[in-house]
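@channel sequence for tomorrow's demo:
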Amino acid sequence: MTATAALVVDIVDLPHRIGATKDVCVEAGAPAGLGTAVIGVPEGSSLVVDARLTSLEDGVLARGRADVHVHGECVRCLRDLDEERTVTFDELYYLPEAARAAEDGEDVDDVLLVGEDSLDLEPALRDALVPALPFRPLCRPDCAGLCPECGRRVDNLPADHRHDHPDPRWSALAALLPDRDGSDDPADADGEEQA
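structure tokens (generated this afternoon):
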């Protein structure tokens, strides 16, 4: 996954001394794909990240929070869902040599790495946000969803809303019933005049 330039922070001035810290604040547009197919942070929406970076023996600990706008759709009624969220993260970014030494059967690609002189906060933010999003977002727990016949929101329909669909096996008998315009004669329904 490519780094989002706005979420890459410079760590040149973070001393390599264990326990040394640096505070960073990043205001940027949200990267693409920060969420799931039904709910997430819209690409380009405002995103504020405050973090404290701490030098450790094996890398840099990034501990912080991000204020994000989350947009999605109720999976039952398709109503828009919008909310402001604060996401906290606590991730260790390994120095490349420390990651290789600690690999021990793990894929080194699965760990976060410190760059040459920078650190990308996007993976930490993504790892904290995406699992916290609802798998099936609802506008409310008892949402009634959509009418399967007309597709309108059940909550907006009258209590007696229904669709009458006669059983097709009785369709031959329907010809014997009075016409809906008030005529009682099946022959009149066909436009034929009786003698």
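heads up for whoever presents: The chain has four helices and eight strands.
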